[in-house]
Structure formats: structure tokens, C-alpha cells
Design brief:
single chain; mainly alpha; two-stranded antiparallel sheet; 1 helix
Length: 85
Amino acid sequence: MADPIKFNDDELGQIREIQQLYATVVHQAGQVHIDEINLHERKGQVEANLHEVRRKEQGLVSSLTETYGKGSINLETGEFTPIGE
């Protein structure tokens, strides 16, 4: 078996620096994965909120159409203009 060779301080420093860089990259990759999970959860909540808003909108449109018929609403004046059929 060959005798071991000892690295000098500069070489050991470079090796340790590379190890630290790898550790940093692994940590960053883990953080990115966690961020992706959180983003996926937030996206799901936003989609659920959108569906709820659309459901409420459809309910209001149905109710107003049943009460006033088809037409348009001017939100600035609060006036409803029926559409002649």
C-alpha cells in the first residue's frame, strides 16, 4: 500500500471551499423545493377563491336577471338599463 500524501493548507482550503459551496447549493435546492410546495398551495387557494367568486357572481346575475330581466348596470350611477327583447 502506498504511503499517504498530505495536502498543503492551500489545497485543503480549496477542497473545503468546494464542500461548502456544494452544501450551499444543496441548501438552496431544498429551499427552492419548499418554495415550490408553498407556491402550489397558494395557487390552489387562489383557484378556490376564484371559483367561489364566480359562483357568487353567477348567483347574483341569476337573481338580478330574475328580478329585473336582462340589461346592463352602470355602477357609477347605480342605474339598470333593460335590454329590449
